[in-house]
């Protein structure tokens, strides 16, 4: 059931507003993008997988930055305490751990030099623009909107499970080490979802705030979709833009240019 803005002008009930947010994911989340069907179905070439890893790095590396920007505006220490675990989850400790390091394990597994990936060289302009737009949104918009934009996490466990299954089935590089980012997010994301969703449901107490929160979540789905559109146009259709990664660049020494 698609719960739309009520014609009465009154705020939706908590249950109806929750369903409205869930429907945005059902309609717009990037698990429906054809690139993911191609990736999870084993149809991607090695270079398409590498291009995905390089470009997705831009998003992964900016998650703790957008969360730090968000926290810099939060006056309530309880909200900061609850939110800061997101930065720790992605950055890890001084020496080890964190989603960023786990993503670089994936980069190494597909034959890329992790230092090259971490440098951001070769990221497509379309990817960069989409990710930067997300960071600016979280930095500049009202706190409720910023938190609502994170609620794509409601839909992430499903795609992570599909990805683990598909990559293990179809690609030689896939194992527990290379896929540790996705396996860990299966445990981390539900905690983040519970807090973020309850915050939005509690604080979006007028129709205006509900509409703004729904628009923020829609914007975030657009950010994720736009990244895959750029990837598809560049590497599946073969229209690699200037400055983007090309075959043989940034490879680990052991992998060569194959």
**Count of extended strands:** 0
The main pleated sheet reads as: none
Q: List the secondary-structure elements in sequence, H or E.
A: HHHHHHHHHHH
Please count the helical segments.
11
Distance between the termini: 49 Å
Percent of residues in helices comes to: 55-70%
Uncertain segments are none
Which percent band covers the strand fraction? under 5%
* Helix-strand makeup class: mainly alpha
Q: Radius of gyration in whole Å, from Cα? A: 19 Å
Average of pLDDT? 94
Query: What is the overall shape?
Result: globular
Structure description:
This protein is an all-alpha fold and 258 residues long. It has helices at 14-28, 34-40, 46-71, 77-91, 99-109, 114-119, 125-140, 143-149, 156-170, 180-203, 207-236.
Topology:
Layout: H1 14-28, H2 34-40, H3 46-71, H4 77-91, H5 99-109, H6 114-119, H7 125-140, H8 143-149, H9 156-170, H10 180-203, H11 207-236
Summary tags:
258 residues; 11 helices; mainly alpha; single chain
Give a quick rundown of the structure.
With 258 residues, the protein is an all-alpha fold.
């Amino acid at each position: 059931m698609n719960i739309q803005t009520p014609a009465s002008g009154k705020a939706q009930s908590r249950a109806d507003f929750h369903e409205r947010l869930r429907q945005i994911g059902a309609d717009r989340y990037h698990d429906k993008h054809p690139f993911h069907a191609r990736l999870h179905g084993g149809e991607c070439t090695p270079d398409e997988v590498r291009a995905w890893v390089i470009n997705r790095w831009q998003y992964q590396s900016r998650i703790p930055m957008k969360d730090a920007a968000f926290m810099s505006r939060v006056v309530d220490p309880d909200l900061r305490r609850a939110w800061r675990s997101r930065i720790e989850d992605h950055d890890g400790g001084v020496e080890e751990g964190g989603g960023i390091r786990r993503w670089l394990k994936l980069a190494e597994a597909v034959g890329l030099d992790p230092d090259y990936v971490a440098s951001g060289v070769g990221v497509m302009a379309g990817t960069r623009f989409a990710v930067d737009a997300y960071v600016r949104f979280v930095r500049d918009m009202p706190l409720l909107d910023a938190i609502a934009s994170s609620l794509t996490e409601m839909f992430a466990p499903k795609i992570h499970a599909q990805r683990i299954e598909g990559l293990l089935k179809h690609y030689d590089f896939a194992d527990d080490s290379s896929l540790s980012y996705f396996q860990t997010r299966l445990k981390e994301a539900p905690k983040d979802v519970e807090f973020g969703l309850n915050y939005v449901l509690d604080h979006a107490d007028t129709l205006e705030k509900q509409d703004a929160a729904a628009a923020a979540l829609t914007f975030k789905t657009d950010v994720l979709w736009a990244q895959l559109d750029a990837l598809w146009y560049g590497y599946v259709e073969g229209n690699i833009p200037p400055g983007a990664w090309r075959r043989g660049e940034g490879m680990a020494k052991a992998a060569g240019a194959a």
